[in-house]
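thread: overnight batch results

M.L. [08:02]
morning all. the overnight job finished for the chain we discussed friday. pasting input first so we're all looking at the same thing
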Amino acid sequence: MRNKKPVEKHSIHVKSGDKVVVTSGKDRGKVSSVKKVITAENKVIVEGLNIVTKAQKAQGGNQGGLIKTEAPMDSSKVMLYCPACEKATRIKYDVVDNKKIRICKKCGEKLD
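M.L. [08:03]
and the structure it wrote out:
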């Protein structure tokens, strides 16, 4: 029997509500916002992207059938979208007034 590793919390460069650009996969180049961040698995759910079809069995009065849902994707497949330069960008962190803020590496605009 295998010993399970303890779940580690990863730090992810995006937060819920951030606008991101998908960098690889079937939705490459599309811009959307992050719905949910799953830090334990290092994944994000992006609104309207990475749609999968799932067969759902009818339960308790709910109708079954094929349901389309957003599947989690790895956080490395998304980059933060800078509204000032309108491009996908990497970020750098800076401390201002004892608060850690994110800054666009291309134009220097504050993202928080």
